[in-house]
Description:
Elements: H1 5-16, H2 20-33, H3 35-45, E1 52-56, H4 62-70, E2 75-80, H5 83-92, H6 94-98, E3 102-106, E4 119-125, H7 134-144, E5 145-159, E6 162-163, H8 165-181, E7 184-190, E8 197-205
Amino acid sequence: xxxxxxxxxxxxxxxxxxxxxxxxxxxxxxxxxxxxxxxxxxxxxxxxxxxxxxxxxxxxxxxxxxxxxxxxxxxxxxxxxxxxxxxxxxxxxxxxxxxxxxxxxxxxxxxxxxxxxxxxxxxxxxxxxxxxxxxxxxxxxxxxxxxxxxxxxxxxxxxxxxxxxxxxxxxxxxxxxxxxxxxxxxxxxxxxxxxxxxxxxxxxxxxx
Length: 208
């Protein structure tokens, strides 16, 4: 089925920053769709006891809930452009929120509302396509990570055996830029397919 351009643009905007009732639905839809990528990303993070973890584009807070319930993370923060999904994330993680083990912030990746050298792990799942300024976002990730800490950015680069050229070009820009920002051991890791989509992750480490 081919959608009219205006409907396609509306759907694309909702996936970038969900709003209203439709946005709440899309946020929960993404929770269901992205479970395999979420579990894989959490495994890659190798979260240790008392780690402070930040999710960029936290959506409805499903990954954060898994981290808070199933790892020894000391604290989890989530930042997102959408008030709609921030509200859902707070509700989904209301116990951790009330206990002061989680926070959810409306914010922009180009200007993260956190102090320098604050997090042990930074991750993001299916948001890189929407980053408006790769260099500023990478610089902010570098700033908020502690020395020796890591980032993991998970996304899809194709489906049904087809490589998405636009995403390939994005990765061809992002990976060298991460290295030039100062990250070490920057690499592309390939995971198993999620539904028909090819899952990959870019990882990097801030120097100790």
